[in-house]
Structure formats: structure tokens, C-alpha cells
Amino acid sequence: MIERKDAMQRVRLAHTRSLLDELRRAGPLSRAELVQRTGLSRTTLFDIIADLLARNVVVEREPVVEGQRGRGRPSSAVSLNPAAGQIVGIDLGRARINAVVANVGHDILAGGSRKVAASAAPSRRAAAAIALVEELVERHGVDLSTLEAVGLGLPGLVRDPGRPDGSHGLTTAARRTVDRFREHFGAPVVADNNSHLAALAEATWGAAQDSGNVVYVRWSDGVGGGLIVDGRPVRGAHGAAGELGHVSLDPHGEPCPCGGRGCLELRIRTSALIAECTARGEPVEEVAGLLDRAAAGAAIPAAVVRDAAGLLGHVIAGTVVQLDPSRVVIGGDLGRLGDLVLDPVRQAIRRLAIPRHPRRLEVVAARLGDDDGALGAVAAVLRHGAPDPQLAPPGAAGGPGRPGSRG
Ligand SMILES: [Zn+2]
Which ranges are annotated Low complexity under compositional bias (predicted)? Predict the structure, then answer.
């Protein structure tokens, strides 16, 4: 009898965990969505939710429209108790720092950015990021007393290829930056490449929501990317998965700083496109000028962008053949040009990625803005797993949904 009771408790705990994991990763969900995502029966799910509401682990939120696409009737959503933990997300980009403060209920409490000189030393960039977070916290009156973790996006290689995938696999530079943030905030730090994080943000809140298999490209002056396969972000054995910009278009081409030759990035990075406009007889003023002129339909800039998008499409077609995604998302500066960029990519995929193989693949522009890396850093923390609800129920004094006040 006792064994049977233990077994039932274990099953119940596993069900509770899977429900909390869904709420953590996806944010507020209706009961119907939770039934669909967890595969639990309505009776079991409603029972677990009633228990979690009573213990203040989850709270009822304002009504949401089921499916979030304007169909169906509004129903109330359940979310993790927002007071249970805050998360700071930081994107330490090469020319700009973005930061957001969020909570485990997926509310964005504050966000902002700051320009930084591309030549600034890592310690100065870290100091600027910390100052930015402190300013945001002060201005928006955010309470970080239950700060759970800091998510950190860094450009380039974050993992040390010499030490595949170990828990101490960060490069020396990344480790130093991570230590700085951990000491300052007194919280764990989760670090990853910022293009990988932007992909995760699009999969969590943006253009790749509910797509389990995604190829994401961040196309600006660098060409980075991220892959989501069967719902999971893919880092690869050395943290370098999704580096589409360093796929070679020509084995005898120009040498690339990565050590390769003829890399896609050399041909389509924004600085190359600006140079190409000049070479074809229509100089443009920096990136903003390139984007404005191309969007306005100026013949040469638009043609330069279309040609580059065709090359990108050629490389993406190879990835499509190998990964069979349901969505390709183009972000970064060039993603803002919409169909001017998306159409050549669609055509290249149709023409080159096993045209006889029927597939439903959407090629869309990213939906999030410049804070995509910082949001992705928050999403990475949310995916890292929740504290055990049995061991650490949130204090949440004064927070929404006191025990017994609802449900
Ligand atoms: Zn390269």
C-alpha cells in the first residue's frame, strides 16, 4: 500500500514538473493549452493547478485569446507567480548593449540600450552593461530581491572548442565576463552566443513561436544564425552551430578571418553591400542609407540587396535540405526589408532544396527588435529549468494571488 502511494506521488510530482516547465518556457497559458501541451487529462491538470494556486506557485492572469490568433473565446490564463523570481537579460553586442529585466511570469519589467565603442575593452563593456541595468532598475522601480539568474549574450565564440560542452566550457574571455556579472549580481549567469539567443527569443515570443524546427539568420554586418530542432535550441558540440555566415560559396575565394575562403559573410555583410553599391555607381550613406534606398526601390541598392539575398538563400537551401525546418526567420538589419529580402530566399529554396520534395516551409521576417539578444538571454534562463517547486515555494509576500485569495 505504501509503495503504491509513493509511486502515485512520484507520478503526481512528474506531472507537476511538466506543467511548471511548460509555464516557464511558454509563459501564461490557458488550461486548454496546458492540456494540449502536457498531454495530461483535464481532471488531473485542473486538480494540480488548484493545488499550485493554493500554494501560490502559480496565479490566474487576465484573459487571453486561445491560440493567440484571434480565434476562439477568451479564457483565463495561468502563469508562474511573477513575484517568484526576476531575470536580467543582457546582450553585449559589438556596438550596442541591450538589457531587459523580466520575471518568471514572462512580464518584461524594463528594457533599454546603450551604444558602446566597438573598440571598448571587455571590462568597460561589462561596466557599461551593469550601469545600464542599475539605471533601468532604478527608473522602473524594479525589485531584484529574488533575482534568479542573469542571461548573457556575447558575440562570437562563447564556448571553448578545446573543451566540448563541459560545464566549464566557456572561453577564457567569456568566463571573465561571466564572473564579473556573477560577482556583481550575486546570481548564476547563463551565457551563450547572441545570435543563438536571438533565435531562441524569436522561438519564444517572435516569428518562430510554435515552430519546432527553425533556421534563424541574423543578417547585419555579421551574418550569424541559430537553429531550433525538435523544439530545442542547438548549440552543437563546440557551441558553433548555425554559423551560416561562414559557409563557403567558393573554395578558392577571398580568405576570411575565420580561416576559410569565400565565406558567405564576406559577400553579404552590410559593409560589403555598401561597397557594392559604390562599385555599381550609386554610393549610399552607411547602413541606414542602404536600407532606406533599397526599401524605396532605388534600382542599384535594391538589386544589390536582392542578389545578396539570393546568395543567402543558396546557403539556407543547403540547411533546409539537411534539417527540414518548418520556418526560416530572417532578422538583423536586413530582415527589416521584408519581401525584398525574403522573396529571393524563398525562390532559392524552391529552386535548390529538393524541389520535388513537397514541404510546407514559411520564410518570414523576424518580429522582435534590437532587444532580441537580451530577450533571448531571458528565454535561455527560463529554459534552464525551474527551482524545485516542492522545495522552494516562492515567498511572494504582497505579490499577486495570495494563497486562498483566488480559485
Ligand atoms: Zn569565414
Answer: 385-395
